[in-house]
Every structure is written in structure tokens, then in C-alpha cells.
Queue: 4 jobs
Job 1
Amino acid sequence: MTQDWIASTGQPLRGTLHIPGDKSVSHRAVMFAALADGTSTIDGFLEGEDTRATAAIFSRLGVQMETPSPSRRIVHGVGVDGLKAADGALDCGNAGTGMRLLAGLLAAQPFDSVLVGDESLSKRPMRRVTGPLSSMGARIDTEEGGLPPLRIHGGQPLAGIDYTLEVASAQVKSAVLLAGLYADGETVVREPHPTRDYTERMLKAFGVDIDFSPGFARLRGGQRLKATDIAVPADFSSAAFFLVAASIIPGSELRLRAVGLNPRRTGLLQALRLMGADISEENASEHGGEPVADLVVRHAPLHGIEVPEALVPDMIDEFPALFVAAAAADGPTVVRGAAELRVKESDRLAAMANGLRALGLRIDETPDGATIFPGPLHGGTVDSHGDHRIAMAFSIAGQVATGEVRIGDVANVATSFPNYDGLATGAGFALRKA
């Protein structure tokens, strides 16, 4: 059953917000704690559908997990060789991160596995991860076109590789490194552009001897993980919607507490500052190897920019929010080098362009980007295509539109940001269920 939102002109955004835990860190924390020797506690775990799907998969693989309170998990690790075969297919839900990382991990197990996903995930390409895994010796069958389900044949001896990614992808890099933990010899991954290094930082926190720098990672097979406690920072991709909203809604001032500021994740922060945004960092610290800080954002007039292509890999999930910032800026904004957006949960370039056109803007699309010409937004109906980030982006657009914006098919917001609408309306959004 689909669910729609109605967004309309809201109030200035005020207050202090606690954004839910980082989705990427939450996925990895559960995985690595499950593979570790000993018991790990995870605080700040994202209680979203994607991350719960990953936790449920490890429970089905024989890992005992406790939930003493929301956002906390106690994981009793079984060691790298302790996973058990599941009875039936493993459902990743909407989680591309979960499916791709699990492909690398399960390819190394002595048992067969099948990974399935929801309708959206079932349309996402998996060849970019099955290709390098196959070159290590894995056997993974897909549907025509390299689509899920993934049928993984266990019992295959894996050999380390020196692999250069064709397209920069933290998920593919992570899948290869996870397989490399089980492979004979050394595994090296090189990237055309550096991507987020959550996997490398967390493997190191779990005691793995891994050598990494921007665009490069190397580890040797046969290592074990040692249990450790993880504090998950607030998710920057979720914070991004409030950074943009407070920047473009006059009179706004928000504090976002303890947001993860991994340098491979915060391209949007740099892009917004290039556009003139007023965003400061306070109370900087480090949680589990990840830099965190409070972000204080105040309304500021934005101007259009050519988004530096060097920032694109570090803001690939934040482009829907950037498009809305560009719609409210003074002068056009040009995006290039973002073809990856066409194979996310939806074709995000087309979805954002079509939605903004429906609200009265001119958008010129290219194969790898777009030019956004700002102007007054009017009311209208937009389709999120079941993509959580598209839905949240248009909830912002509705706050500065002259009429009501109806956003179709928003149920998937719960996959990454549970209670987004409650947090948003508490801060001053006008947003309701249709």
C-alpha cells in the first residue's frame, strides 16, 4: 500500500535535532561484530528497515543478538568461521549496501546462500560486485542483466586480487575486502576516485591489519576480528536534508548533534558552503575512528555554482537535497560527472529533474548531470519512485513552494530515516500524510 505526503509552506526551522545513526556504519557494525571473536555492543544503531534487515540476516546465519533498548545491539560474535547456513533466502529489503557487502562475505562461506531484495533493490545492477568476486574464485548467479536475486555457491576457494574499480563505489570495494579476509594471499583495491572508507576504519577498529589511504586499500587473508564496542555517529546523509532546509527557509537556525563527518561523505557540506551556506562545526570529537561534530546551520542566501567534479563521489547520496538547494539559489547550478545517480534506488537525475519541472522549474538533463535553473516553486504532484531520498528532498521543496506539493510513494523513507516526518514537523516543517 503506497503512502503519500502533502508538504506546504512551513515555519522557520528551530531547535536541536538528534538525527538517527549512520546507516552505512550501522550495517558494517552488525556485520563485523557478528564475525568477531567475543561480544560487541553497538550504540546509536539505526532502527531503520534496511539496517534491521541486515541484523535479521545475521540472526538467521546463527548469530545471537540482543536489543536491550532501541538503537542498542549486543552482538555475540561467532568468529570469521562461525556462520551457519540459513533456511531459505536472505531478504535484504531495500538495502543495496547490505546485499553488496553480504555478497562478498557469503561468497567465502562453505554453504550456499540466496540474497533477495524488494522491488526497488531487485532492479539495481550487481555485476559490478559479482565481477571482481568471480575473479577471486567466487561463483554467483544472477538474473538476466546482472540483477538480483544473487545465488551464491559456497565452498569456493578464494584467491586475493589486485583490483582497480571501473566505477568508484564504497560498496564494491567493501565486498572485495570482505571476501579478501577469507582469500589466500593479499587483496588490494584501487579506486578511480576515493570513496568513503567506513569499512577500512571499522575493520581496523576490530583489530584487522589493513593498510589504506584515499583511493587504496590492502589486507591479507586469514585474519580474525576482535570484538569491540561501536558508537554510531548521526547519519550525514540524513542530516543533509535539514542542512538544506534550514539554509533556504528564512529565519531558520538548527543544531544537528554529533553528525558523522567522514571526509569521504561530506561533499555536500563543501558544495553548500561554496553556494554561500552558513554552516559551522562545534564540539568536534571522534567515535570509533569516525570524526563527528555538531553542525549549526542558519538561513543564508545561496548562489548557483558549478559543482566541482572532485566532490561528486563524496556526495553521491546527497544530490536530491542539493537539487532543492539549487532550486532556491540565485543563478543556475551545474552538475557533471554524476552518472552513478541513474542506478541508485531510482534514476535520481531523472526523478529530481521531472519533479522540479512539475513544480515550475527549468532543468536541462545530460547523461551524467543536469543544469538547474532556479525560480519560484509552485504547488504540484511529484513521484518519489519509491526512493526515500527523493521523497525527503521534495518535502523540503514544499516548504518554500507557493502551493501544496503532493509527494507520491513515500513509504520507503522508513528504510533510512524512521520518524523523519515527526522530526521535521517538530522543527517547523508543514508536512502531513495525504
Job 2
Amino acid sequence: MLYYAAVFFLIAIISAILGFGGIAAGAAGIAKFLFVVFVVIFLISLIVGIGSHRRRS
């Protein structure tokens, strides 16, 4: 998911350089959304992993 966020970020940068403001804004919005989803999933898996590690020990 982080890969796709980076891809959309690069698309936003390239389209902004070329002057396509609408496409740049849309790609940046998608990149932000994917990054937030990645962070949320990462934190949930981190918490679950710590919780399961404590139960085993």
C-alpha cells in the first residue's frame, strides 16, 4: 500500500510540473488517503503483534 501511495505521489509531482493542476490534486489526495490507510493498518498490526508476543512469553 505504501508503494501505491508513493506512485500516486510521483504522479502528482510530475503532473504538477507539467501544469495539470486538477490531476495533481486528485493524485495527491489519493496518495494522502493511501498513506493514512497504511499507517492505520501498520499501527493495528503492531499493536496486535505486541499483544500476541506478550501472551506467548
Job 3
Amino acid sequence: MNEIAPPRLAPVPGSPLSGASARPELRGRPGQRANAADRHVGARIRERRVMLGLSQQQLAQMIGVTYQQAHKYERGLNRISAGRLYEIAQVMGVPVSWFFEGLAGGGAHDMNPQQRLSLELARNFALIENDQHRQALSAMARALASAPQG
């Protein structure tokens, strides 16, 4: 019996099959495994990990990957599957959408030294169990913030 092959259709321009993205700023070079969105998500994972006071090794153990894989996720070198990102969100106590916040503004979110210091301060403050110590530290921060800069 003769079988008739279905006609081959050309990809629609702008579709994922055409190789042209609707958002060219998020498209990587040919052969590149990750793009700007992957780097942004990786930076957000790192930001949240630092907020929680976790090492890359601890995060890797919590999500069931090697340290090297967790490192590649944070750098945006390897893409993260939807299932893995959901698992990371669960472990880190944030919705999946949290990792994409700020992406529309373009580029990966790199923390500057002041942001990194603020995150570290907040993380350490949250670890203080003594209420009187927390109140004293808060009062000291208020006093320093209102003191004349010289």
C-alpha cells in the first residue's frame, strides 16, 4: 500500500520552533545552554539562599543534586526544569513566581555590596533568639541611622 507522507510545514516566524524568540533580549547565542532568564532565576536562587543563611552544599542536599549542579543553577549555566524549580521554591519557602520577579526589567539581578550586607544583617538578626538583644540591636540601628553623618 502506498503511504502519503504528510506535508512538511515551515515553522511560524516568532514561534519556539523557528528559533526566533518573541523576546530577543532573552535569547542566547546558538549553542548556549542558558540565557538571560536562566541567569536571572539563578541569581534569585542565590539571593534567597543567602537570605536563608544556607551554603550551596546545604541547598544541593535539600534539593537532591550535587554541589556542582547547584552552583551551575545559581550561575545560570544550566537550565532548571519546571519540576526542579518547584522543588527549590518549596525548600526555600517562596512561590515559583518569586524567582522571576524583576525579569521584565531586563538582565540578571546582581546584588551590590550594600544589598548583600543588608541581607546578611537581616539573616543574622532573625537568628537572634533573645528578644531583649533584638530590641537593643534595633534601637542601636535606629540611633546610628539618625546620627549625623560625618
Job 4
Amino acid sequence: MAGGDDVEEYNLPKCLKCNEGQLVPLSDYGGQGAPVHYKAWVCINPVCGFNIKIRNGDIYLNEPITPGGMNTSRSR
């Protein structure tokens, strides 16, 4: 790529619920600050809202999605 930018290209899976959006992976940090990759997958179609999340080894489907700006940050 020109300019030396290293950009990986991904083929993201299509959402099987709406067949319009793609599922994008989301990551987070665990309780001890270690990164948790692919903790959730969310459909980018705002009308669909499909999501699948892993929390403490359990799988959750279609939990309510709230804007991140509503959360308060924690000091580490």
C-alpha cells in the first residue's frame, strides 16, 4: 500500500438475522486488565441490532445495546 500504511483486509461474516449487515468483532479488557479479543460480535445494520457476547464463559444473544458515552470510565 502506498505511504507505508499496513491495513489488513478482512472478510467479515454477513449477519444471518437480517442478511443486510455484517458482523464486526469487538474486544474489551478483562477484570485484571488483560485484553479479551472478540468478546462480542455486533451487526452493523442499526435496524437489526443482532449481537452475541461472551461474559464469564457464558454466551448471551441479543442483549440491549446502549451508547458507550453513557458509561462512566473506571480508573485503573
